[in-house]
Request: fold
Amino acid sequence: MGNTYQLAEHFISINGEGQMAGALALFLRFAGCNLRCDWCDTAWACGKDAPHETVTLSRIMQIAEDAVRQGVRNVTLTGGEPLLQENIGELIKRLGGTLGLRVEIETNGAVPLKPFLPCGACFTMDYKLPSSRMEQHMCTENFALLHEFDTVKFVCGSRADVFRAKEIAAQYKPRCPMYLSPVFGRIDPAEIVEIMKEQQMGDFRLQLQLHKFIWDPNARGV
Ligand code: SF4
Reply:
């Protein structure tokens, strides 16, 4: 049957975050995650029993070709954790190499990125801060592998998280843009700006999750 993937949903929308925020993208959301963040907004896609379809590589390529015909230039692989899918590297190469799409991988920071570097994708890598209760799972060796076209996203659910983001950045010095992304409903973005000013965090950018403001924050498929 060839390579298959556990696809939870697919849709075209705008990228809500990362360097391509605001640009149209095909989203491919894969089922399953190796973390359980305290404030996860896609918990429904994380468990072993997450609703999904098992689809072939050629079926995903058809979905992507259709998106290209609709003028889409970006594809975002998300989850769950997309890099846990077996043979995901092959899919990444085909999406970029065959269709010329800019491939963005939203990854949770708990999967080593080294094996995926030759695939030609950009990474938006989360660093899970203390309020997630998952910080101990972070693969800090990934920081040295990121480039200027990648992004580190520090997801902040508390004031303490913002201070911790500053510490981590000073320790690992990633070579790519660093975003502070407030967990919707947990911390007022204005508080983050105040801390950025107080703490002289000029190397960071605040980024709000656009889709939470445009649509219902709990809506799926947007
Ligand atoms: S890594 Fe992402 S998908 Fe997985 S539990 Fe955390 S927030 Fe949810």
Observations:
- The mean pLDDT is 95.
- DSSP finds five helices and nine strands in the chain.
